[in-house]
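Figure S7 source data.
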Amino acid sequence: MEKTTIWVLLSFLLFSSFLFQIHAGNKQTHALNNLYRAKWSPNSAIDTGHFEPPQHINDSSILSQEGLKTNDKIDRLPGQPYVRFDQYGGYVTVNETAGRAFYYYFVEADPTSKKSLPLLLWLNGGPGCSSLAYGAMQELGPFRVNSDGKTLYRNDFSWNHAANVLFVESPAGVGFSYSNTSSDYLNCGDASTAIDNYVFLLNWLKRFPEYEDREFYISGESYAGHYVPQLANLILYYNKMANRTIINLKGILIGNAVINDETDSKGMYDYFGSHAIVSDEILDRIRKYCDFSPNTTKQSDKCIEANGDVSSNLGLIDIYNIYVPLCSKRILTPKPKPMSKAIDPCSNHYTYVYMNRQDVQEALHANVTKLDHDWEPCSDLITKWNDSPATVIPLLRELMKNNLRVWIFSGDTDARVPVTSTKYSINSMSLPIKTPWHTWVYQGKLGGFAQVYEGDLTFATVLGAGHQVPSYKPKSALGLVTHFLSGKPLNASRY
Ligand SMILES: *[C@@H]1O[C@H](CO)[C@@H](O)[C@H](O)[C@H]1NC(C)=O
Ligand SMILES: *[C@@H]1O[C@H](CO)[C@@H](O)[C@H](O)[C@H]1NC(C)=O
Ligand SMILES: *[C@@H]1O[C@H](CO)[C@@H](O)[C@H](O)[C@H]1NC(C)=O
Ligand SMILES: *[C@@H]1O[C@H](CO)[C@@H](O)[C@H](O)[C@H]1NC(C)=O
Ligand SMILES: *[C@@H]1O[C@H](CO)[C@@H](O)[C@H](O)[C@H]1NC(C)=O
Ligand SMILES: *[C@@H]1O[C@H](CO)[C@@H](O)[C@H](O)[C@H]1NC(C)=O
Ligand SMILES: *[C@@H]1O[C@H](CO)[C@@H](O)[C@H](O)[C@H]1NC(C)=O
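Tokens for the predicted 2-acetamido-2-deoxy-beta-D-glucopyranose complex:
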């Protein structure tokens, strides 16, 4: 009975995600909604307690990487335009006994600058979504897939202009990453993901020793609002344990990030209300009858009814960017459509087709064990999540206390983890303001608005961008990451 109740409570989100699956193939919403549904269920088995580093990382996790880098060099991807920078792709074993390996795709900066630029890791969220599907192929990577599903075009604002960029499909069960112990797919959660990510990094840095001492930054979006501070925390912890810099972490950058369940949820409904997606009357009922505090186990019938009314307004909009159309036809074109700067709403489909081609997988050194399932933008294998803290704010505080740079950005046309949520979450930290709210510009163009807090936390909006900020505002996003990496504040408007 109670389970049904909660299912109904969140059914509006599920309802919208079904539409995404049918019309757009965009499964990121689906993954996040499943998690929330499970978290808020009265019989939830999900541990929402605080994230704690494990006491010990077994040395046997660090394996010889001899000769592996050379094998991972990618000659050229099918349908790829000519480029000067180097690309690598391959597997890193994160647990030998289980036979668990993460797939990575690494794009270096231009040969003339790669030695001086930092190393930047990018993680997508979900949980269960692929950094290759979104980050690399639709957001900040050097290429995007054409509408023919077999050729690529350049992204002029690729983040490898600012850093050497590493994309990882994490945890096992996402994209090309896998485990030979299939029960691993049912034992996923924040803690095991963080440990595997950490072991991945230790091994990867051994494979690419020239990056071992390099300044290192971690970035990501959406549910990576959990992954990024958790991994950063592990790095800090093990550096301290060893009394030396094992990984030279300098900062984190998270966008439209899941940070704090209570404020994230309130902010989502407030965004629906303030953007005329639901009526004031419905919003009033949500505010009055729903309780999003961490320990809530049951919502009132009136809250459930109000949610139903929210649901009926969401069917035809892209909740990830309320001003763009949904993908209406998931079909390829024989010849590539001319692509505009903004991403094609059906690009998820083009990417899906491209990544499932055998010649592409061979070029990427992916799927070498011939997995028994397709490559999917968000995993079908991961159907259960064991632990997900209600908040990562204590981790952000810890990072700031250790003088790491923390930047939080928000594409302001996303309704799923919207700018209102991020503002409420940051406000709940009650940080003193260092630089008051101002417009920020990049190369003479308005990028958005920003505010800097004491303790080196920058909050920046990206005007007109949806959830996947670099997809919608590639130039602003490159400006943002460039400033983040250089540690120089965003440029205020001269007006
Ligand atoms: C490390 O892991 C290996 C394999 O799982 C195990 O045989 C060994 O006892 C572990 N060592 C420690 C110190 O935990
Ligand atoms: C490897 O993964 C298994 C789960 O499949 C886990 O029980 C084991 O502790 C892990 N080993 C190490 C060394 O982390
Ligand atoms: C998984 O099993 C396949 C087939 O036995 C093997 O080739 C592969 O190396 C294993 N993966 C890992 C990470 O051990
Ligand atoms: C850590 O290293 C520093 C310098 O190498 C040394 O002075 C200090 O005693 C070490 N601390 C611990 C707890 O080992
Ligand atoms: C929620 O429960 C935890 C323990 O599970 C407790 O520490 C916390 O104070 C509770 N929060 C609220 C708002 O009641
Ligand atoms: C791996 O390759 C097999 C055989 O070609 C294919 O059926 C499967 O869809 C591929 N899986 C992934 C994850 O790429
Ligand atoms: C930002 O401002 C600095 C000095 O105020 C200027 O040198 C730089 O060109 C500006 N950068 C951009 C991207 O506008």
